[in-house]
Amino acid sequence: MVSAAAAVLALSGAGLVAYGLSQQDTATPPSPGTSGHHHGAAPPPASTTTRAAGRAGAAYVLPVGQQMARSQPTRVRIPSLGVSSDMIKLGLQPNKRMAVPQNGSQSGWFDQSRTPGELGPAIVAAHVTWHGKRGVFFNLGAMKEGQKVEVDRADGSTAIFQVEDIGQYPKAKFPTDKVYGSVDHAALRLITCGGVYDGDAGHHLDNVVVFAKLVGTKKA
């Protein structure tokens, strides 16, 4: 079985419309408009403010904890899972679909989210399987609260995150505000697909999301 994680963005007159992250049964990401490429989760507006989930009139929340200057991530390591993966930059396709890594051994940072360590949520996605082999995030759902995720950055620093929550959600009920909404700290979201694989639909029915918070930094 070949699997891939992807995200879709959409705009309406009212603003960002949220969807759930998806998986495509193909060796390469589907081109824009390909049938079977299912909806993904929309990121928050590009803003450094911490208004709750971007809602109009929400009270300002004072940032807490450590924050780091912006620097592109280069590698993600999850010691408890034996994961050490190069990280590439993922942009948007013309149809507002988020690109996905072109193989199963790389993770991808969504470049319209915060860089890991900055105030707000940084979004990282990777494949579950690829050409019948395990992908980077094959065991993501096995993570436990308190475990660490380390992200190396281009400036030579490493952002150290601690897992606070792990969730599995039906695609139709993807928790967009919880994943992409504004927060008062430097956060990390690791996203992939999970649950039962629907062969007829060509994708897994759920998404797995790991929520983590910055708890430390170090220099190379």
From TrEMBL:
Pfam families: Sortase. Residues 23-53 are annotated as: Disordered. Transmembrane segments: none annotated. GO terms for molecular function: hydrolase activity. It comes from the Bacteria. Residues 1-20 form the signal peptide. Keywords: Hydrolase, Signal. This is Peptidase C60 sortase A and B. The lineage of its organism: Bacteria, Bacillati, Actinomycetota, Actinomycetes, Micrococcales.
